[in-house]
């Protein structure tokens, strides 16, 4: 029987091994996946309030908040099981493909939902599909990226967050106006198929090293690509050569401890992470980020409609103008994180976000709102790269704790924030006399709390510790 191409030990190296397993392609796959995930998530934000009104519902801000709650609930309940399976079987690519199938099914269900209850179930399933990407996708990227580039590459991948949030609302508004409720979902299914291509093509590092290519090994001067065993035999080297490969590659191929590292139980994983100062700080900052963004999501479209009379299409355009600046903040913050440390990015990002959240309370000209909303999102999105880089460092320094473990905890923190945020924000907006003002004040409170955490606990040497050392000198 002919040996199957691309399977370690079969004798045939996969076509395009070097670019399919490269850092840049893995970053592209994860980043585009994040962008498409956020696009299909946000494409209905400007649509749902108008659709709910059209089919006869009232209190649409609160109902929209519960739909966002349903998404985050699905994200939350599925995170740890997905992380457990990912680390137990050490297979990222197939789990990403399974997540895609669940995501597509949820979009079809939402598109054909006959009532609000089915909409909620569809959003729960969408949250589960999204969880696969955030847990397994980030773990896949952390597997492939050398430690000295982790912040930069995570920052580049995280450009997908503002990109998806930028494109989603305006596209949703335009497609809803032109084609009705099904329009945004058909578009989401089509672009998700593009994401599937990347998930199928990518090759995990654990497989690529068996074929003579390690993406962790950076190219030295005079070399053309990142490989540390570039010889003629590597073109057709089966898995039997893994011992030689491991000897030649960086220490990251093998654990620093003597003997193999045993994976710890789920309970011990959670306990270990909760005792780790850097991990706990990253979770708290992620929680702040999730609450602030999601508390505004169900309220911004309604606020824009009531304050300036905007329709769904115009609301989408406001999101474009407001979120475009964030496309550059994630890679910049990732670069600074690698060079200086996460503590130098997290605190300034949170502190500078506070006054701009306060200015959003002013109901003056629409241009003022758009500019302030854009500046707020620019600085707020700067916390994501240092937080995810911190968790990668925690994983590498904690025996038995895998990348899927730390990013599942990140997902839980984000899921908790985006679960309670839209419900609180939607209820406050609908129930309080000055609902929008209350939502903004809530955001300021969370930003202030996050700033304290960033000052005292983020980074190898937190800024508070540095300040105390300077005072003592």
Describe what is shown at a glance.
The protein is mainly alpha-helical and 473 residues long. It has helices spanning 17-20, 23-42, 48-54, 60-89, 93-111, 116-144, 150-157, 160-179, 182-201, 205-208, 242-248, 266-275, 277-296, 300-308, 312-323, 326-340, 343-359, 366-380, 384-396, 403-431, 435-457, 463-472.
The assigned structural class equals: mainly alpha
| Average pLDDT rating | 80
| Name of the top-level CATH class | Mainly Alpha
| Number of helical elements | 22
InterPro entries: MFS, MFS_dom, MFS_trans_sf, MFS_Vesicular_Transporter
Membrane topology: Multi-pass membrane protein
Transmembrane segments: 21-48, 60-82, 94-110, 116-142, 154-177, 183-202, 279-296, 316-337, 344-362, 368-394, 406-424, 436-458
GO molecular function: transmembrane transporter activity
Description:
This protein has one domain (about 15-210, about 265-470): MFS general substrate transporter like domains (Growth Hormone, Chain: A, Up-down Bundle). By secondary structure, the protein is mainly alpha-helical. It starts with 16 loop residues before the first helix and ends with a helix. The chain is built from 22 helices and no strands. Helix 4 (about 60-90) runs parallel beside helix 6, helix 7 packs across helix 19 (about 385-395) and helix 13 runs antiparallel to helix 19 (about 385-395). It is about 70% helix and about 0% strand.
Describe the secondary-structure layout:
Layout: H1 17-20, H2 23-42, H3 48-54, H4 60-89, H5 93-111, H6 116-144, H7 150-157, H8 160-179, H9 182-201, H10 205-208, H11 242-248, H12 266-275, H13 277-296, H14 300-308, H15 312-323, H16 326-340, H17 343-359, H18 366-380, H19 384-396, H20 403-431, H21 435-457, H22 463-472
Helix pairs in contact: 2-6, 2-7, 2-8, 2-9, 3-4, 4-6, 4-20, 5-6, 5-9, 6-20, 7-16, 7-19, 8-9, 8-15, 13-19, 13-20, 13-21, 15-18, 16-18, 16-19, 17-18, 17-21, 19-20, 20-21
